[in-house]
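User: Show me sequence and structure for the first protein, then do the same for the second.

Assistant: Starting with the first protein.
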Amino acid sequence: MSAAYWRAHSLAAIKKALAALPAHADEKAKRKAISLSYPFGQRSLYPYKIWLSEVAKYFAPPRNRKASQSDLRRIEEYERATGKRFPGGGAS
């Protein structure tokens, strides 16, 4: 079976586990629910490897994106209004 097959089943199980949780569930509860929803039986070999990669993707922080012009304008407005540099860099 292909990676796409294992990936699709992994994602479906993750989504189902998360749907059963309350909206305010913390990360620990989410991790436990996801772990308990493992759909492939024995935790070994290629299906488990795909499962782990999908779980890691879910909990990974969002990727940095390039600042848009509106983001840069807001940073400049903040710096003008406060007289301070924006934390983490700035438009200047």
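Switching to the second protein now.
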Amino acid sequence: MAKIKDKNREIVFNKLQECKKLRGEWKKCVEKALKKFEGTEKGKLYKLHFEQHKAIIPVCMELYISQRTFHSWRNEILDAIINQAMYDRLLEP
């Protein structure tokens, strides 16, 4: 499992690891946050890594990106979900 320093980022990351189990308010929150990434490479990263549970290296190879870019994009996705979760009052600021 990846080490994540930020507490809210860790909470969201763990929720996304159980992507198939997302229900209710969290599911709506993630869907709202991901609209920003629809049709982009970052959206593909989300689907490959969190929905299809592909490991980092295969995702990087499929998207032709470095591991550094993978982590940067993943963190951007997590931050968008965190911001939406705070707006929806699922997380505290």
